[in-house]
Amino acid sequence: MSDIVVAVDGPAGSGKSSVSKEAARRLGYAYLDTGAAYRALAWHCLDEGVDVENPDAVLERVRAFDYATGMDPDRYYVRVGGEDITPDIREPRVSAVVSAVARVPEVRQSLNAMFRRLMDEHPAPGVIVEGRDITTIVAPDAPVRILLTASEEARIARRSAEVSAQTTEATAQQLASRDRQDSRVVDFMTAAPGVIPLDSTDIDFEQTVQALIDTVRSGIPHD
Ligand code: CDP
Ligand code: CDP
C-alpha cells in the first residue's frame, strides 16, 4: 500500500508525464501514467480493427484488456497481451482516436478500478498518479493534489518539438481538438477546491520538477 498519493492532472503538453516521472524518481516514489492505459486501449482497438466510435465494441475490448505497466519510473513500460507497445501509444494515429475510447463511461469505470488497484498494491513509500481526473474522481482524497497547466502556445511548442514528422499547425490542431473532446468528459482546466494550481508556462522542465517536489513536500502531513 502506498502511503502518499500525489494526484496530478492537466491538459496535453502541460508536462504531466515527464515532470511526474522525474519527480517520482527523485522522491523514490512509484509513478502511474493513467493516460497510457487509455492510449493502450485505443492502440489495441486499432490493432484489432475495432470501430472506436462504437462504444459497445470498445467495451467488449476493455473487459478482456490484458494491460500491464511499469510503475518504477526507471522501468516504465506499457504492454498489451505481453507485447511492449511503449513508443507505439504516442503515435498521432493513437492520439487521434483516444478521446473516443475515453468518453465511454463504462471504460472509465473499468480503468479507474484498475488504477485504484495499482495505486494500492504498489510497495513504494508514495506514488504520483497523473491524468485528467485523478484529483477529482480517481483519488479525490489524495493528500497532495496538483493541477499542472501551461498556456496553449507553450503546450503546442512542447508537443511540436516531440512530434517532428508533422507541421506545428497539424500538431496544434490535434492538441486543441483532443483537449476539446476530453473537456466534455472531465474538467481538467480549472483546479477543483483544494487542488493546487501549478503553471509551467514560464518555467523550464527542471524548475517544474522542483516546483512539484516542493509542493509534494509541503503538502505531506507530518507526524
Ligand atoms: O500526454 P497527453 O496529455 O497528450 O495525453 P495522455 O495523458 O497520455 O492521455 C491520453 C488521453 O487519455 C487523453 O487525451 C484523454 O482522452 C485520456 N485520459 C483520460 O480520459 N483520463 C485520464 N485520467 C487520462 C487520460
Ligand atoms: O504529459 P503531458 O502531455 O502533460 O506533457 P509531457 O509529455 O510530459 O511534456 C511535453 C514536453 O514538454 C516534454 O518534452 C517536456 O520535457 C516538456 N516540458 C517543458 O519543456 N517545460 C516544462 N516546464 C515542462 C515540460
Backbone structural class: alpha/beta
Q: Assign an overall shape.
A: globular
The proportion of residues in beta strands is 15-25%
Terminal residue distance? 19 Å
Order of strands across the widest beta sheet?
Answer: 2-6-1-7-8
Number of helices: 9
CATH topology: Rossmann fold
How would you sum up this structure, described in words?
Strands 2-6-1-7-8 form a 5-stranded parallel β-sheet, with helices on both faces. A 3-stranded antiparallel β-sheet has the order 3-4-5, with helices on one face. By secondary structure, the chain is an alpha/beta fold. The relative contact order is 0.22. The chain has one domain (4-217): Rossmann fold. The longest helix is centred in the middle third of the chain and has 17 residues, at 105-121. The chain is globular and about 50 Å long. The chain contains 9 helices and 8 strands. Helix 2 (34-47) crosses helix 4 (92-102). One cytidine-5'-diphosphate binds next to helix 1, helix 7 and helix 9.
Record keyword descriptors for this entry.
single chain, 223 residues, alpha/beta, Rossmann fold, 49% helix, ATP-binding
Write the layout of secondary structure elements.
Layout: E1 4-9, H1 16-27, E2 30-33, H2 34-47, H3 55-63, E3 67-69, E4 78-80, E5 83-84, H4 92-102, H5 105-121, E6 126-131, H6 134-138, E7 144-149, H7 152-162, H8 168-183, E8 196-199, H9 205-219
Parallel strand pairs: 1-6, 1-7, 2-6, 7-8
Antiparallel strand pairs: 3-4, 4-5
Helix pairs in contact: 1-9, 2-4, 3-5, 4-8, 7-8
Bound molecules: cytidine-5'-diphosphate (2 copies).
One cytidine-5'-diphosphate (CDP) is lined by residues 10, 12-19, 158, 162, 200, 203-205, 208.
Enzyme class: transferase
Catalytic activity: dCMP + ATP = dCDP + ADP; CMP + ATP = CDP + ADP
Pfam family, one: Cytidylate_kin
